[in-house]
Structure prediction request, 302 residues.
Amino acid sequence: MAFLEVKQKLLREIESLGFSRARAARALHVTGNASFEDAMDWIVHHENDPDIDQVPLVAIEIDIESPEPFHITEETKKKANELRDQILKEKKKEEKELEKRREKDRIRSGKELQEAKRMAEGTEWKRYKDSRQAEIQEEKKAREKVLQTLEQNKIERKRDLGLPSEVTRSIAAKAITIGAQEKYEHKSQNSGSMRECLRSLRHHQKDDPEKVRNAFQTLFTYVRNVARNPDEERIRKIPLGNPLFQERVGCLKEGIEFLELCGFQRDGDFLYLPRGKVDRDVLVTAGLLLESAMTNPFFGIL
Prediction:
């Protein structure tokens, strides 16, 4: 290391305040022996430097302008302490302002991230909705085509047998087509309501995935059992006061609504599915939706 040039007078002033010679010498050398205040300012701002107290090689320069011994007065000490306090205060103020700016940056980044996520989710939902609408339309067209083919075959067979006139057959065919279409649209609407019900349940209980899983599993069990044993009344009758049912499904508005969409009706203290109201297609649809909700991580993402 090169020799550090410092003034003896200033060195003694700083040492008298309790600073080590190494620290005082570094401060004077770096500030060019300009003044006591500049050296103190440097010490305050660099007090956390890892090498600030490593002993340097020092060459003492005698201050010929002040040959008399220098005495540190109380006023000098007070001034040095005030300088240090002022510098520390300014440093704390700067750190506080920096922390405020960082907090603002964090808040802004968080808002930007949430907005980007919201836009991405909105785009994904729109894409899914458009895709589902297209699928429904394609299914509808395919069913209409099949119904038309079947009806045409029926008309031809009746004509070969000399049965009802063309007008009668036309009216009958139209009635059959309209009835089948209405039934299909009703089932599609019911399926959409079921899906929305499960999506809403997952959304409202998003902080408790275990509760969501238990609810879906319990609903799946009820639907599966009725589909397998539609003639067994015990399975088609759910006691509302059952503690396990209340814990897993009964306490959730969407859980009750889903069972009602499957055909269950309130009957006193029970949810009851009359034998004549059992629709296997509806139960199969409900089971498939529940299975998808339990296995598909993207089910009900919005």
The first strand starts at residue 4 and ends at 7. The mean pLDDT is 81.
